[in-house]
Amino acid sequence: MLTKFRGLTHREALVFRGTKRWAEFSPFIEYSDQEASNWLAAALSFANQDLPQLHRTSIGVNATLPAVSPEEVDGVLSNFGDFSTVKIKVAERGQPLLDDVLRVLKVAESYPNCKIRLDANGNLTPEQALELLAQIPLDRLDYFEQPCASLAELVELRKTLKHLGLDVLIAADESIRKASDPLEVARLGAADIVMLKVQPLGGIERSLEIAKQAGLPAVVSSALETSIGLAQGAYLAAALPELDYDCGLGTLSLMESDITANPLRPVAGRITPVEVEPDAALLEKYQASPERTVWWLARLGRCYDLLES
């Protein structure tokens, strides 16, 4: 990682070729086998099944800003090239609210033509979310992603925003991909937008079904994958019948390198869904240690057994 993101300085992934194309299995290290098995289901389907019918060949993507200081904002965002939307990480554990406010204000000042999104990963209470919103330019806000952890808190926040006459859209991420029932968000009126991450949700087909049943606008986002994993997300975004928002699929710009000679980085703020082939020299360069390889293969086997059971 060029900048520490989600507490990570390196990203680990297992990639393999199926009967049709390369795929990626890259659940975060701390995830349980049960949760990680969804990621494997997604990888197996992408590797071995036909691609979905596409409704577009180009996907607009946002820049993503980790919880950095205002002085670091321009340096991080320069890696994304042209963009019209910035997603800003807020509510980083251990950082005060003032840090978030200053980060947002710096982006608003330095990129006056860009829409702004906030992503709190569920780390705020409704009261803290309102306190943050009161100190930033709401006319620039595209939406607020997962401000609170629970559905009850999201419902409460939306009701308060409506009561105050504030036109702030709420997007649900963890409340969908980590939920036993991803459609409960829509049934309870807890969000205006659904975030779709193709690996955690089990693949393109299941993600499309969730979006259809939720009946809400969808945004496809990455899970910090290599270009191989990002390609699966790009095909999902291209297959959605409607796509009204930029997607969070430009995250390769947060990484120092990749495992393909043609990385899926945004060009003029857009990416194109393509099947990605890894480069043999890069695979060798970034190959895991023997100990990590054993760990990943054991995890792969356990997750596969869960899918078979």
Short key terms for the protein model shown above:
alpha/beta, two-stranded antiparallel sheet, TIM Barrel, 37% helix, 309 residues, globular, seven-stranded parallel beta sheet
Residue-averaged pLDDT, rounded?
A: 97
Number of helices: 11
Percent of residues in helices: 25-40%
Strand order of the largest sheet: 4-5-6-7-8-9-10
| CATH second-level architecture | Alpha-Beta Barrel
Strand-residue proportion = 5-15%
* SS-derived structural category: alpha/beta
Q: Could you tell me the CATH topology label.
A: TIM Barrel
Distance between the termini: 36 Å
**Which regions have little confidence, pLDDT < 50, spanning 5+ residues?**
none
Q: Label the overall shape.
A: globular
